[in-house]
Amino acid sequence: MSARATWRDDGRCLVCGPENEHGLHLRFERSAEGAYAEGVVPRHLQGFLGRSHGGIVAAVLDEAMYYAVALSGMPGVATAEISVRYRRPLPTEAAFRVEAKCLRATTRFAKAEAVIHVGGELVAEAAGTFLPVPSDIEIKGE
Questions:
Q1: At CB < 8 A and 24+ separation, what contacts does 26-33 make?
Q2: How confident is the model at residue 137 (pLDDT cuts 50, 70, 90)?
Q3: Nearest-CA neighbor of 57 among 31, 96, 25?
Q4: 24-45 pLDDT per residue, tens
């Protein structure tokens, strides 16, 4: 018999964790279609000068889709697949808005999509598939 694994949320998520001194500290809210947050990518998370690292952009989109899925009634999920299309650079130190919606949720998987805009211009978009966390894993907040 194997021991039950535990995933703990200690508030240090790079995207939304309030305890991560180097993070983005995004606060996701429910929207009519899913979830949204507004934020700024600080310079220490840049790729090229004045431009957010593409991995940071992908992480923001991924987190937004997770929240959209969780708020749709499927909170215990993990990302199985994500596809990102970068339309233009996301400037550091510029206000952005990320919006996501859950397209489909079943007991076996969920599909979601997200977009990031800066000043009304599309910066990046993503689609993702999320799977329920296996029953032998317990998710706990701190």
A1: 26/60, 26/63, 26/98, 28/63, 28/64, 28/67, 30/71, 31/99, 31/101, 33/68, 33/99, 33/101
A2: low
A3: 96
A4: 999 999 999 999 999 999 999 9
**pTM of the shown model:** 0.92
Question: What is d(CA 16, CA 89) in angstroms, rounded to the nearest whole number?
Answer: 21
Name the one residue in this structure whose structure tokens are 């990046």: 124
Give the total number of structural domains in the chain: 1
- Is residue 114 one of the residues assigned to a domain? yes
Range of the domain at 109: 9-137
Domain at 111, CATH number? 3.10.129.10
Q: Which helix (H) or strand (E) holds 134?
A: none
